[in-house]
UniProtKB/TrEMBL annotation:
Keywords: Cell wall biogenesis/degradation, Hydrolase. It catalyses: Hydrolyzes the link between N-acetylmuramoyl residues and L-amino acid residues in certain cell-wall glycopeptides. This is N-acetylmuramoyl-L-alanine amidase. Residues 3-140 form the N-acetylmuramoyl-L-alanine amidase domain.
Amino acid sequence: MLSPNWNERPAGAPIDMLVLHYTGMPTAAAALRRLCDPAAEVSAHYLVDEDGTVTALVPEEKRAWHAGASWWQGRANLNDVSIGIELVNPGHAWGYRPFPAAQMRAVAALARDILGRRPIPPSRVVAHSDIAPTRKEDPGELFDWAFLARTGVGLWPEAAGEAEPEPARAAACLARIGYPLAPQGVPFAAALAAFQRRFRPACCDGRLDPATMGRLLAVAALCEAGPAIT
């Protein structure tokens, strides 16, 4: 254990989510220092460097402090039930760049290992931006979620056409997938932009167009929980 920034999970809390982040700091060394600094009050269970090196910071059984104010599929306070992985990347503030192949392979292998030991369904492998759309945008539109899904981690619709934009139907899709919306204080456009960043990274403007509507329907169809979208 390298980071002192953790506490106990609530009694009986299931570990049934995996949350992916980027560090958003200029260097890997700076990110590691922050994740291990008691004054920062932030941590994750794992840190994956750009060369694929994986550093374990907090035992999975403990509650790391990575998600902050968050909500997904009807539950808030997601640090209680999640495992957090930080990927070294300077982020949008410091020169955001693609995630190298070695890093993607390492995070895929780490995630598969976690999923082999934990009851985490595909719809609960999420981005930090998914669970906190008004605050976060990591790991961002350059993260290769399609590659991750091909390795057996998370969701990705291989076929998604276009559909007539219908705001009410789109909101129902977002809710079924798990996104927080107006009842949780998140505007529709913010939740939609988070969805686009994850599933339609070429366009993250928060506007509902035919391509985004088509992808919403395709992703919602992959989700096990929630009512059917008609």
